[in-house]
């Protein structure tokens, strides 16, 4: 039996939820090979039938779907039974159980999470703010930020900021070189906003910076990749974080998502204490 599985991701919307769920599943079975086909904005029985006809010709086909229209979801499940294809609804049972718990019918509107509501516009505003305030730009707007990330070069400040912006947080990040890098407003009032320091292991940072230099085709050996200089940078950064009592996260073995989750928790604690 082949160890390659044909995964069909079928969604009545953008497929973002399915992508995330399947990534989480895939991480649990790293020895299995997958071929993935994605079908988004699937909202008719004709679309479903065409996909199922294709899937039945494949060996080891598995279907994951997020379809909020109950009749279409049932149609897909029945087709899966007919063709002996395993089909798994990612949201169906969860929505049904919530409906019972809340004693309220679900709207069953596709793309409901992408509605142009207040939350959407807040997220867009956060993204615009974060992009404009990347890498130490426009620090005079520091009081407008929900989050301020500090760290030496290449400690994932920018990707973490962008991820947080997508969660609705106006995030400003500042490369930490020395105390002079910190805006005066923050030195005067370290609790002006929720500040988080990012650090990492020196050896890991050497590798990241060397890869960065290779990408830029810069081969000259500089202080930027010197292990002794990097250790000093990180030690000074840690001293700064301690001096101003800013919480610190070591990002060495953390994904951007994991780092962001920790930062959001820190922000919750900060908001409860101001």
Number of helices, where a helix is a run of at least 4 consecutive DSSP H or I residues: 10
What is the makeup of the main sheet?
4 strands, parallel
Structural class based on helices, strands and sheet pairing: alpha/beta
What general form does the structure show? Answer: elongated
Query: Helix and strand string, N-terminal first?
Result: EHEHEHEHHEHEHEHHEH
Q: Quick one: how many beta strands?
A: 8
CATH topology of the largest domain: Rossmann fold
Uncertain ranges: none
What is the level-2 CATH architecture name of the largest domain?
A: 3-Layer(aba) Sandwich
Number of discrete domains: 2
Mean pLDDT: 90
Folded structure, characterized:
The chain is an alpha/beta fold and 274 residues long. The chain has 2 domains: 4-114, Rossmann fold, CATH 3.40.50; 118-273, Rossmann fold (3-Layer(aba) Sandwich). The chain contains 10 helices and 8 strands. The strands form 2 sheets. The protein has a 4-stranded parallel β-sheet, sandwiched between helices. Strands 6-5-7-8 form a 4-stranded parallel β-sheet, with helices on both faces. α2 (45-56) packs parallel to α3 and α5 runs antiparallel to α6 (157-166).
List key phrases describing it:
single chain, 274 residues, alpha/beta, Rossmann fold, four-stranded parallel sheet, 8 strands, 46% helix, 16% strand, elongated
Brief summary:
The chain contains ten helices and eight strands.
List the helices and strands and how they pair.
Blueprint: E1 4-11, H1 16-26, E2 33-39, H2 45-56, E3 61-66, H3 70-82, E4 87-89, H4 92-102, H5 118-132, E5 147-151, H6 157-166, E6 171-175, H7 184-188, E7 194-199, H8 202-215, H9 227-243, E8 248-250, H10 256-273
Parallel strand pairs: 1-2, 1-3, 3-4, 5-6, 5-7, 7-8
């Amino acid at each position: 039996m082949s160890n390659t599985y044909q995964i069909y991701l079928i969604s009545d919307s953008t497929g973002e939820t399915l992508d995330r769920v399947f990534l989480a599943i895939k991480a649990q079975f790293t020895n299995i090979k997958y071929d993935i086909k994605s079908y988004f904005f699937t909202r008719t029985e004709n679309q479903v039938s065409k996909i199922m006809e294709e899937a039945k010709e494949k060996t080891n086909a598995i279907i994951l779907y997020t379809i909020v229209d109950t009749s279409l979801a049932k149609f897909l499940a029945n087709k899966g039974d007919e063709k002996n294809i395993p089909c798994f609804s990612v949201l169906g049972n969860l929505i049904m159980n919530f409906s019972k718990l809340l004693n309220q019918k679900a709207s069953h509107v596709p793309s409901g999470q992408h509605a142009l509501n207040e939350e959407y516009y807040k997220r867009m505003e956060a993204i615009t703010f974060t992009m404009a305030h990347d890498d130490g730009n426009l620090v005079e707007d520091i009081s407008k930020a929900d989050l301020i990330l500090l760290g030496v070069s290449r400690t994932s400040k920018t990707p973490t900021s962008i991820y947080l912006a997508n969660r609705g947080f106006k995030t400003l990040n500042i490369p930490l070189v020395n105390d002079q890098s910190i805006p005066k407003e923050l030195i005067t009032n370290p609790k002006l906003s929720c500040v988080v320091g990012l650090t990492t292991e020196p050896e890991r940072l050497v590798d990241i910076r060397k890869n960065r230099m290779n990408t830029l085709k810069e081969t000259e050996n500089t202080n930027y990749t010197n292990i002794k200089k990097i250790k000093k940078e990180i030690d000074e950064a840690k001293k700064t974080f301690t001096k101003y009592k800013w919480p610190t996260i070591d990002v060495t073995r953390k994904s951007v998502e994991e780092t962001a989750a920790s930062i959001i928790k820190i922000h919750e604690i900060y908001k409860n204490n101001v």
